[in-house]
Write a structure and sequence with these properties.
By secondary structure, the protein is an all-beta fold. It has a single domain, classed as SH3 type barrels (Roll). It contains no helices and seven strands. The strands form two sheets. A five-stranded antiparallel β-sheet has the order 6-5-4-3-7, with no helix packed on it. A two-stranded antiparallel sheet has the order 1-2. A hairpin with a 4-residue loop joins strand 4 and strand 5.
């Protein structure tokens, strides 16, 4: 599984920062509806990344296409 062309690894990407970019933001990571978080897990079979979001302090399953690094 990849985020923006970079392969995910459970050991090296644990707690790595990502930003959720909703579809309506059209790829603009500076959109006000974007949210920052950190990777806590991922499931390749379900094609989801579990992200702990900073603002809501919740873990949510997110499609990797909606994530960018940082």
């Amino acid at each position: 599984m990849k985020i923006k062309g970079r392969e995910l690894n459970k050991e090296s990407n644990y707690l790595e920062p990502v930003t959720y970019v909703p579809n309506h933001a059209n790829g603009n990571a500076g959109h006000p509806d974007c949210e920052q978080g950190v990777i806590v897990d991922f499931d390749e079979k379900l094609n989801i990344v579990k992200v702990l979001y900073c603002k809501g302090r919740t873990v949510q399953s997110t499609h990797p296409d909606n994530l960018v690094w940082g």
